[in-house]
Amino acid sequence: MTKQQKYCALAFAALLVSGCAPKDYSFEDDGAFDPIEPINRNIYGINKVVDTIIIKPAAKIYTHFPPPLKSGLGNFFNNLGEPSNIINKTLQKQGDDVVTSTARLVFNTTFGLGGLIDIADTMDIEQTKTDFGQTFRAYTGNDGAYLVIPIFGPSSIVDAPGLAAELVASPNTYIENNTVRYSLSGLNVARVRESLLETGELVDVAALDEYSFVRDAREDLRRKTVPTNVWGDSENFWQ
Known about the structure:
Blueprint: H1 3-17, H2 27-30, H3 37-62, H4 67-80, H5 82-91, H6 95-111, H7 119-122, H8 132-140, E1 146-149, E2 153-156, H9 159-169, H10 178-194, H11 197-206, H12 210-225
Antiparallel strand pairs: 1-2
Helix pairs in contact: 3-10, 5-6, 8-9
């Protein structure tokens, strides 16, 4: 076993052992649970380099796209996310949101030119976003140790498997043409990164410790968006 393999094995073992915070652990009092902070900081640094060299420049190019094109692409990628929303809202027992996401998918795909036009929004059918990470935490009751994933960035030991599940649920994954699939993925990354350009500039200026700032902000946001009452009675599904 090489040194790199041993390093990865030790990191994985540390996550398994310390994946869940102690019972008396409090985010408000103790901050994010980050037992492998040195490893996470190193990965964060590598991601920062990749972002500076590749992703951020792509996002800046995307800012020059005509507004109508950007709007259409945003609608298209939001529509691609509806199957994941439907699956997760079902698992979270959010019956009304399941109906809403299904209606949005049907109307926007059929009448909105494959999702380029948000027809559902004009009908006051608003999108409710969620993901597999939120679903996993709703069932486990714990977000687990903070984890920085190469390229994907801030996550947790509970959220990380959700990334794989999101790929499986995404229609983009099943496009056979590699050029089309990779082009769509690249466009979506640039689109999402563009929305964070101003936030990133504020972090660069305001944060004394950028890593800690991003980690704590992410953890605080996730705690505010995790669904509750997943283990409720079946008759409470339609709420």
